[in-house]
């Protein structure tokens, strides 16, 4: 019954396909962490103008489904700017932008949860404003940020599964190829292969979100 | 931009938009019912059913909707469970959304003060009266921001149903791009259609939260 998963190099192919989406997620999350940290701190500096612009950016990113953004970049940008972007490239661009803004919001939330006296004590020690952030605020915010970023990674891995819609050959596409090949020989192929892909995603996302929950409970002080 | 072309294909996008809205509506209503059922089971302290809900929530939250839909639509018929694509879309959305709503209601329920529940019990209310007249009204308002976020999230999630052969907005867009090479017009209509659907929902929920913030 489960033979289909291990016939020829099917198993390896599925894993390689899964790696495509996981790779996109990992690249995007690294960019998100760096960019989100910078923008999040900018957002919490209480400059009305900067805050309004960033808030607007966040709303713009959130108002549309990610697949719409993907299509705009993949089909639109190549036509308007005359540059050909691969599906993977478009996905990395869109998921990075999305992640940067989501991360920014998490950083803003974490920084604003830090009591005011921390800022004041640091200032009274004679620390400059950038030192206050680097030595006091960011380390304090980490307790909230680490679980939240891990959670964002889990969301990212789940959301990147939609890249199959712009023709990226990833795990679902590989699954379809395997099922099409076995169409006359194995009646249960679709059930087994899609069931297995379902399980694969669970096997990745469950530990990640569990870790996030454990850290959240441990550090929720 | 060829506005004649856009005018000609507007009905197609309206039909696709209506499908998106219908799908979202049924999926979200079912999600809320699942969320309420999960909360009620918690209030009634049904240990076994709580366990089942916990397992369901973990599975639902840790797998993408896209894969859930593929499994429902292409996988299940192989073991004798055949569903049409619209039912699959609604079931998939409810399966995903139910766990998100369950979490929202759980947070709301946990925030209802213990004293309220004890007061209700001391008045001699039955468990069901307690749920409907004491816990639910308060939990609902506390959870409203989180419920709104889920409603927007689930509406956006419907955008992938073209993979199970449902003619939604993304399907229509790809169709036009494939048949007529009208990329700009198709993408323009796609963006405008989603704005027409999501903006009112988003604004409506924000207003609702403001109106009810006295709770």
From TrEMBL, chain A:
The chain crosses the membrane at residues 20-44, 56-77, 83-101, 188-208. GO terms for biological process: amino acid transport. It is found in: Cell inner membrane; Cell membrane. Residues 18-209 form the ABC transmembrane type-1 domain. The keyword Transmembrane helix applies. It is a multi-pass membrane protein. It holds the Pfam family BPD_transp_1. One of its GO terms (molecular function) is transmembrane transporter activity. PROSITE patterns: ABC_TM1. Gene3D superfamilies: MetI-like. GO terms for cellular component: ATP-binding cassette (ABC) transporter complex. NCBIfam families: HEQRo_perm_3TM (TIGR01726). Belongs to the binding-protein-dependent transport system permease family. HisMQ subfamily. This is Amino acid ABC transporter permease. It comes from Campylobacter corcagiensis.
Automatic annotation (TrEMBL), chain B:
Signal peptide: none annotated. PROSITE patterns: ABC_TM1. Residues 17-209 form the ABC transmembrane type-1 domain. The chain crosses the membrane at residues 12-39, 83-102, 130-153, 160-181, 187-208. Its main location: membrane. It is found in: Cell inner membrane; Cell membrane. Keywords: Amino-acid transport, Cell membrane, Membrane, Transmembrane, Transmembrane helix, Transport. It is a multi-pass membrane protein. It comes from the Bacteria. The keyword ATP-binding does not apply. GO terms for molecular function: transmembrane transporter activity. One of its GO terms (cellular component) is ATP-binding cassette (ABC) transporter complex. GO terms for biological process: amino acid transport. Belongs to the binding-protein-dependent transport system permease family. HisMQ subfamily. This is Amino acid ABC transporter permease.
């Amino acid at each position: 019954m489960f033979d289909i998963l291990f016939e020829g190099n099917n198993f390896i192919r599925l894993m390689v396909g899964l790696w495509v989406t996981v790779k996109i997620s990992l690249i995007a999350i690294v960019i998100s962490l760096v960019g989100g940290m910078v923008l999040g701190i900018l957002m919490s500096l209480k400059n009305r103008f900067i805050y309004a612009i960033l808030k607007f950016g966040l709303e713009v990113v959130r108002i549309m489904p990610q697949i719409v953004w993907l299509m705009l970049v993949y089909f639109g940008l190549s036509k308007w700017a005359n540059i050909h972007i691969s599906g993977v490239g478009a996905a990395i661009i869109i998921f990075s932008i999305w992640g940067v803004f989501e991360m920014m919001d998490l950083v803003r939330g974490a920084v604003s949860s830090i009591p005011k006296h921390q800022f004041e004590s640091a200032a009274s020690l004679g620390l400059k404003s950038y030192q206050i952030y680097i030595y006091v605020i960011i380390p304090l915010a980490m307790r909230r940020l680490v679980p939240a970023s891990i959670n964002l990674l889990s969301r990212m891995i789940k959301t990147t599964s939609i890249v199959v819609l712009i023709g990226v050959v990833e795990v679902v596409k590989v699954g379809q190829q395997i099922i099409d090949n076995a169409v006359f020989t194995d009646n249960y192929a679709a059930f087994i292969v899609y069931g297995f892909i379902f399980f694969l995603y669970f096997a990745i996302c469950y530990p990640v979100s569990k870790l996030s929950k454990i850290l959240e409970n441990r550090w929720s002080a | 931009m060829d506005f004649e072309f856009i005018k000609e294909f507007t009905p197609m996008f309206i039909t696709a938009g209506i499908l998106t809205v219908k799908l979202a509506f049924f999926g979200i209503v079912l999600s809320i019912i699942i969320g309420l059922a999960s909360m009620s089971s918690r209030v009634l302290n049904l240990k076994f059913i709580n366990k089942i809900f916990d397992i369901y929530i973990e599975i639902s939250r840790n797998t993408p909707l896209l894969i859930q839909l593929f499994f429902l639509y292409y996988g299940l018929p192989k073991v004798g469970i055949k569903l049409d694509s619209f039912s699959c879309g609604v079931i998939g959305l409810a399966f995903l959304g139910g766990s998100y709503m369950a979490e929202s209601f759980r947070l709301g329920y946990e925030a209802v003060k213990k004293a309220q529940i004890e007061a209700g019990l001391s008045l001699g209310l039955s468990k069901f009266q307690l749920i409907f007249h004491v816990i639910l009204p308060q939990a609902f308002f506390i959870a409203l921001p989180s419920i709104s976020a889920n409603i927007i999230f689930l509406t956006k999630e419907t955008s992938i149903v073209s993979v199970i052969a449902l003619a939604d907005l993304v399907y229509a867009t790809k169709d036009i791009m494939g048949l007529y090479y009208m990329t700009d017009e198709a993408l323009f209509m796609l963006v405008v259609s989603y704005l027409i659907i999501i903006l009112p929902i988003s604004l409506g929920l924000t207003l609702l939260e403001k109106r009810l913030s006295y709770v």
